[in-house]
Write a structure and sequence with these properties.
It is a single chain. This protein is of the alpha+beta class and about 160 residues long. The chain has one domain: Gcn5-related N-acetyltransferase (GNAT) (Aminopeptidase, 3-Layer(aba) Sandwich). About 25% of the residues lie in helices and about 40% in strands. It is built from four helices and seven strands, in the order βααβββαβαββ. It has a seven-stranded mixed sheet with strand order 1-2-3-4-5-7-6. The protein starts with a strand and ends with a strand.
């Protein structure tokens, strides 16, 4: 597996991952009817970065990273990750998260904050905790899961 900067030629595979995850309504608080055009918000403008994890020509997952908030909050980074359904459980998410943490450290951010980690997404929560992130708080019932109903959204943070 290789992690590299997103290229325009990757878009069709990245969009397929985004579309499927968003429509499932289980892990991202994005509109499930989001158009492909609106899905392009996934592509970060510099100084942020969007990357893909690939195996040969296949995109297994993608991540975006950048500054969490402008101005006085610009010393803290953020990142988001999506992995293709059939590539989960193979270390893709872990590799993407490690890449994002290294990227942020190299740019002298003070830490990385995840603003809305769905509480019932146990795999992601456990991954982030293994990589040193803490749950700072949970907004109760802030995410409507299609099967579980209202579940919390965690704010998670890792200081560098």
């Amino acid at each position: 597996m290789q992690i590299r900067e997103f290229q325009d030629a990757d878009w069709s595979q990245v969009w397929e991952i985004i579309r499927d995850i968003v429509r499932a309504q289980e892990t991202f608080p994005y509109d499930p009817e989001m158009s492909e055009e609106k899905g392009r918000m996934w592509i970060e403008e510099p100084p942020g970065l969007t990357v893909v994890a690939t195996e040969g020509e296949r995109v297994l997952g993608t991540a975006k990273m950048g500054t969490n908030r402008p101005g006085p909050g610009s010393h803290v980074s953020t990142a988001s990750f999506m992995v293709a359904a059939d590539a989960r459980g193979k270390g893709v998410g872990t590799a993407l998260c490690r890449f994002a943490v290294d990227w942020a450290r190299e740019r002298s951010y003070a830490g990385m904050q995840f603003n809305a980690v769905v509480e019932s997404n146990h795999i992601a929560v456990e991954l982030y905790q293994r990589l040193g992130f803490e749950v700072l708080g949970t907004v109760p019932g802030a995410f409507m899961h299609p099967e579980l109903g209202a579940v919390g959204l965690h704010v998670m943070y890792r200081q560098f």
